[in-house]
Design brief:
With 456 residues, this protein is α/β, with parallel strands linked by helices. It has 18 helices and 15 strands. Strand 12 and strand 13 form a beta hairpin. The structure holds pyridoxal-5'-phosphate.
Length: 456
């Protein structure tokens, strides 16, 4: 067999034509979303004022294993997909590890992340339904950028509520969204009831993703013909992101490889859910037994230190309730935490896999993450996003373990994006000004106290 290339690309006609719905193969289903008022499982009618019809269908569909990707979506996927599977020969050499390290690189598009995979799908279905415009929130800015790109392509107006600290720290990120035609509002803002209420209670808040979600959903349901879209956490988003795992698995099959360990960073869980989907299927059905590993920031540790409970997806407590690992919708992560992965909860699908022992989770300190990021940048020549660097850090740790044990494991990790808009954080790391904030158990109490009381 010829030497495995540094970069392996599937051909255009090998881009998956269907997404994979992992729920169809899960032995036990994640608990259903509950209506925030009645606490009964949500129905199509409950969700239709918020989300587009096709996306509601996908959200509630736990049985269709493969779902066709429409031609109109594939047409835009082909602009930047397939994404390369890269063999990290240089990193392996630098670590002197017998492990084989692969990463699936999703940063080759203007949004600089995997988020475009779902943004395209969500904008496309909205356009098909004749929706007048979309509202969303963005934390670090990648989702807002991805959705701006997709909405520009399908010619749909878009309003983005951007978490205030990112809005201020990342003016160029904001400018990119505006270039694609989106309206960008710092959150919390005075433009919504929930924003005004939050500002009255916490006038100095730098915002949170949960709070921006509340504002975006309020604007969507109060503006005629508008709908809300979300870039992570939801079942539909994990479904769209399965394109990452399907491509990675197919590419590895062609190279006669199969991972012993699959690693991804976890914010709301969409890239990880997409990357592991086909491997989790193998694990659940007993075909193979790869380790699946979620890496989260020590400052926002929903899987490793959260509670498995029903919680709101937003701070304003207006969204349906999801059963997930959560720090409580009242949890606001430290503002010293750089870039992304700041969400209080975790995808219900991943939460269930974790609860049932299919998924492992670990957390990383941000200075260690940036050390891994700068090492990776120099060796592999890609400037990684801080979020992605959580996965890099864990992959390096696994490769070092292989060096110590002499085992030549095959490691696959998700490199979700590039970090060009995160240079403030890189600079603070390089100048030695970055520190690690790890909440104490006491710090987590107010968030847990904000959990709703649900009779199950
Ligand atoms: C948004 C984002 C993440 C985290 O989101 P998930 O939904 O957990 O995947 C990770 N990496 C990058 C580059 C992102 O933009």
């Amino acid at each position: 067999m010829a030497k495995i290339p540094y970069r392996f690309y599937l051909s255009e006609d090998q881009i998956p034509r269907q997404w994979y719905n992992l729920r169809a193969d899960m032995k036990e289903q994640p608990d259903p979303l509950l209506h925030p008022g009645t606490h009964k499982p949500v129905t199509t009618d409950d969700l239709s004022p918020i989300f587009c019809e096709e996306l509601v269908k996908q959200e509630l569909d736990a049985t269709t294993r493969f779902i066709d990707i429409p031609e109109g979506i594939l047409e835009m996927y082909k602009i930047y997909r397939p994404a390369p599977l890269i063999r990290a020969y240089n990193l392996e050499k630098a670590l002197k590890t017998p492990a084989k390290i692969y990463y699936k690189f999703e940063g080759n598009n203007t949004s600089g992340s995997h988020k475009l995979n779902s943004a395209i799908a969500q904008a496309y279905y909205a356009k098909e339904q004749g929706i007048k415009g979309l509202c969303t929130e963005t934390g670090a800015g990648q989702w807002g950028t991805a959705l701006s790109e997709a909405c520009a392509y399908y010619n749909l107006p878009l309003t983005v509520f951007m978490v205030k600290c990112s809005y201020e720290q990342k003016p160029y990120r904001r400018a990119v969204m505006q270039t694609f035609g989106a309206e960008v509002i710092p959150s919390p803002s005075m433009t919504t009831n929930v924003g005004r209420a939050i500002l009255q209670e916490h006038p100095d808040t730098t915002g949170s993703l949960g709070c921006a979600i509340s504002e975006a959903t309020e604007k969507a349901v109060t503006t005629p013909g508008y709908r809300y879209v979300l870039g992570s956490v939801l079942n539909q988003v994990l479904l769209h992101q399965s394109v990452i795992g399907l491509e990675a698995k197919k590419a590895m099959e062609i190279l006669h490889e199969y991972p012993d360990i699959v690693i991804g960073c976890a914010g709301g869980g969409s890239n990880l859910g997409g990357l592991i989907a086909p491997f989790a299927a193998d694990k659940i059905t007993g075909k193979s037994n790869p380790r699946l590993v979620a890496v989260e920031p020590a400052s926002c540790p929903s899987l490793t230190r959260g509670k498995y409970a029903y919680d709101f997806c937003d701070t304003g407590k207006a969204t349906p309730l999801a059963k997930m690992y959560t720090l409580g919708s009242g949890f606001i992560p430290s503002s010293n935490h750089a870039g992304g992965l700041r969400y209080h909860g975790m995808s219900p699908i991943l939460s269930k896999l974790y609860h049932d022992g299919y998924l492992e989770a670990t957390s990383a300190n941000q200075t260690d993450v940036f050390e891994a990021a700068t090492m990776f940048a120099k060796i592999e020549t890609i400037l990684p996003a801080p979020e992605s660097s959580h996965a890099i850090k864990a992959a390096i740790d696994e490769a070092i373990k292989c060096r110590e044990s002499g085992e030549a494991k095959t490691i696959l990790f998700g490199l979700t994006g590039t970090g060009y808009f995160d240079m403030t954080a890189y600079t603070s790391f390089l100048e030695g000004k970055m520190n690690d904030y790890i909440p104490t158990d006491e710090d987590l109490v107010p968030g847990f106290n904000s959990l709703p009381k649900i009779m199950e």
